Amino acid sequence: MADKLRAQQQLEALQARYIGIGSSDTSKHEWTSNIARDSLSSYLGHPPLLQYMSIGLGQSRERTRVQLLDRMIQPVGPPPKSRISWLT
Amino acid sequence: MVASTEKNKLVYILTRSGQTDITISSPLEAHKPQTLIYSLIGLDVGYDNPMFAALELDFSSAEVDPTGEAVKELRKELVYYELDLGLNHIVRKWSEPVDRTAHALFRVPGGPNAPSGVLVCGEDNITYHRINNKKSDLLRLAIPRREGATEDPNRTRSICTGTLYSLKGGEFFYLLQTEDGDVFKMTLDAPDGVVEKIKIKFFDTLPLATSICLLRAGFCFLTCESGDRLLYELESLGDDSDDAVFDSSQFPSDPLKEYAPPFFRPRELRNLKEADALGSLNPIMDMEVANPALEDAPQIYTINGGGGRSTFRTTRNALEVLDLIESPLPQSASGVWTTKLTAEDETDTLIILCLHSRTLVLKIGDDVEEANNTGFLVETNTLGVQQFGEDCVIQIHPKGIRHIQGIKFPDDGAVATRQDITDWHPPAHRTIVACATNNRQVAIALSSGQILYFECDSDGSLAMAEEEISLDDTISCLAIPDVPEGSVRAYFMAVGCSNSTVRIYNLAPDMEGNILRDISVQGLSSPPSALTINFMTDKSPRGYSQYLHIGLRSGVYIRSALDELSGEIGDTRRRFLGPEPVTFTRVAAAGEPAVIAMTSRPWLAYTHPRTSVLQLTPLNYIPFKSAWNFEGSAFKGVICVSGNELRIFTFNDLLDNTTCESIPLRYTPRKFVGHHDQGTFYVIESENNTMGAAARQALIDQAEGAMDIEQTNGETSNGHAEGNELPPNYFGYPRAKGQWASCIQIVDPLTDKAVLQSIELTDNKSAVSVALATFESRGDNEYYLAVGVAKDLQFTPYKFTSASIQLYKISANGREMEFMHETAMPEPPLALLPFKGKLLIGAGTNLSLYDCGRNAMLRKALAADCVPTRIVGLKTQGSRIIISDQAQSVTYAVHKDQVHPNRIIPFADDTIQRHTTCTEMVDYETTVGGDKFGNIWMVRCPPKVSEASDESPDGLNLLQDKAFLGGAPNRLDLVAHYFTNDIPTSIQRTVLISGGERVIFWAGLQGTLGALIPFTSRRQHKMFQQLELLLRNEDKPLSGRDHLAYRSYFTPVKGVIDGDLVERFLVLGRDKRETIVGQIQGSWSSEMVDEAIWNMRGLYAF
Predict the structure, then answer these.
(1) CA of B76, closest CA in chain A: separation in Å?
(2) pTM for the whole structure
(3) What are the tens digits of pLDDT across the range B416-437?
(4) Which end of chain B is more exposed for a tag (fewer CB within 10 A), N or C?
(5) Is the distance from CB of B400 to CB of B432 less than 8 angstroms?
(6) How far apart are CA B611 and CA B591, in angstroms?
(7) Which domains, and CATH codes, for chain B?
(8) What pLDDT band is residue B1 in, cutting at 50, 70 and 90?
(9) Residue B225 in contact with residue B668, Cβ under 8 Å?
(10) Between chains, do A59 and B689 touch, taking CB under 8 Å as contact?
């Protein structure tokens, strides 16, 4: 029992520290949002990827960076109306 | 303070203890979940508690609002954090809303009489915020827009980068660059430390930069987003230019209110002057290694992106030299020497040229003229010239040695006076075939196989030694090093014999007082053609060592260390230089001793100035047969003769072993294809969100027309004609959302070094792929250029209105092309490949085979839905086709031409989703490729699957195979995987040096050129593997990053050893090397490891 409690505590500690560690309560929207934010953050954090995209779009790297950051606000649209995840 | 994009913010306190030690505290946390950070700076608060300003956006309210309304109401905030040093605690001090488009912050200097605060830059606005501001105090500026016929007056700009520069006396200004490249000078009017007004003024237009740095010395360094980095000289600070000044009183402080946008007129550079450029290949869009120039080694051709600054570059492995003098000779010369007249002379006085059985003596003065009465024997070939003893010069010719004492040029004329001439003649019926000299010693080899040795007498005359060497073989070359400092003679002589050996003899008396004793012998693979011995700087404890350089008739160069005490030969390195015999000259390159090796092209053996490792690099120069060191009063360099030209050149810099030539291109190049028989390249270029050439011209014409009506005889006010387009290499192209500017250019990098023809694509079309093809139906000698074209192309989401293939006929000399026809395609054809006399086209997910018709392309075969996403690349060997998908790695397919209609059947694909950028077939089963995340990988088809695919002529067995897990019936195996930290844009299996083995050469987007070299021996592979493992622990990087984790960034590294890490071994200290080598199994010594690393690079690459 104590082990289970400790595991639970560890998981909670990890969840507090890192964004995106799911739990049984994570909704589909939260989960997909986190994945999308993770990807976007990776695109703007790796200089070659940011440059690759900027060249394709024909704009400055700063503008691409801001666009990607803005997309991180709501990457997969607004959250579903119901808070019960399996209904959506 | 360090912030992540979302949530985390950490504050570290750095404390300096003593002079050098800096300690870093454990971090303080200021996390705020569900908050994005756009920008973060430290503020200037003088000696108060440190403050930070962050541009944050808290999206937590949008996360719980299903209507989607909250997103629109989110506010961006400027948040101040204060670090309380007394409490060791970070406080979120204050926050205020800012414009929603804000994305960059700049610090305003603080302290006494300085305002302190923050500049917030957003789209079309720059706002000054005082620390802990009230909303009414904001001062705001709109960013001036370009005025011009082609510019959209409603387009807003934002600031990309900028810099703050403080002058002496507390004044300061900003240089801020917009995304067009226009740099503005911004100043704050702050009497008594309160900002009343902010002003902005156009400064100059520079290429778009990631960072601008102003130097105290009056220079401006620009790290450009693409292409070369530039250094500018500041001519003025723009105070007295007549450009319009805008200030904050003209604009409302609320960015949403109406205002009259400010305009300025872009112009040529006025405040800055270009001073220097630092070459950079970034970004490489495509690369090809080829040898259309038919040089010894292939060249690397790259297309380098970046709007108006795009270039086509030719990179060679060669040292850049600076040509100083080029002058014609009456007759072609075979040898050249320079000499001083006395041992004390600082500079050379005479140039001696050996023409065909004639010797020409030239004097170096204000100009070079023929010298008379120097005493040189003119009617003969010269073998060697040497300043000898105090004030003598000797000339060695086949029939003897002439010793001339005291040559002087009394009245600066070309007529010399001399004291004494002595001639020494060899025994009858013998001639001198080789000689070696230094200031005090002379050795000559006779045609009979004898070597005679002379030393300098007290009066400067030649004294022949009693001992002599006689050998049975013909002697081809001799070498004596210079007299070491503090000695009276050099200790060793090297003799090269025609029986493929080099022997070392002692010149200093040994224990028994004997000289000319045989000390050591080195066997060679071919007869030696030249020898030389010199002292070169290296990493030995003393800083330099004696080296013996051996050149062979076969064109191989050998460098060995020659022990100064024992005369033992050791530590040997070999390299093939060219197909002709190698000869040497000792020179000084950048002040360090070096050796020029001459074969089919010149090479330099030198010490790398930074790593102190001995290097061998070809020179970017014409081949020459003879050269000598040249020390003039004005410059130092190397004098050489090539045919009937006399040239003097010098070395610029020994750090960079590649040279680069570039040809400007019009737009960002996307792909190119080479026509190697004709030495031309066809480049497709396109520019997104840019106005097409036709639209540009129409607008300019319209503006000119309007002007003609308004002012019939008006002079244009500012120098250049109104409608003239600004040069795009500085000003870029006018932007237009959703528009494309695209063209096809023919480039000749060999003879003309220029663009030969440009064809603009009209109608908002952009070129997406290119291939050079011949069609079976049209004859083998007619070349066609197929270009894939998409109209109104857009990304995210991927959209287009139509797509087609354009076919151009190429003229016989490859220098012109003519439009033939255009065929509509269902989707943009991103991949084209000439295949079995037809053209293979990958459009969307479909792969089809087309033949050339009279008015259109004719489809011969189709494989629908070959890949899941989109075909971006094709490669082939035989009937096998490797199809690369945009997001799903590669698929192997086979073409069956025995059935009608032809079948293309995919039979194997990969297990991992790789966003493929480039691929190359290494062999029939194996493919190497790169992906968008910076990995290089190699996949292989299992042998049974590979055999089965080629078994039946109609492919029925393959069609009956069941699809496996929604993909092809079979899977590929992973052979190797490696993270490169740069996106490979092109990969090729090629030879890099003449006589070398094949390597996999790749080019990365950010300018990386890299090679993957195959291991051929198991023993060596084991050693390198152990070495890499040890170096990971022994030679950790400064930041402490784990090497294994780094190279396994996305997928665990497999089958590749990091050569960059392994080469760190060469620069480690002696002790560390020994400890590492001691741990390697398999009886390796430090020298052997050293040699293995050297060979790994030297035999395959450069």
Answers:
(1) 11
(2) 0.89
(3) 888 888 899 988 889 999 999 9
(4) C
(5) yes
(6) 16
(7) 146-278 (no CATH), 1013-1098 (1.10.150.910)
(8) confident
(9) no
(10) yes
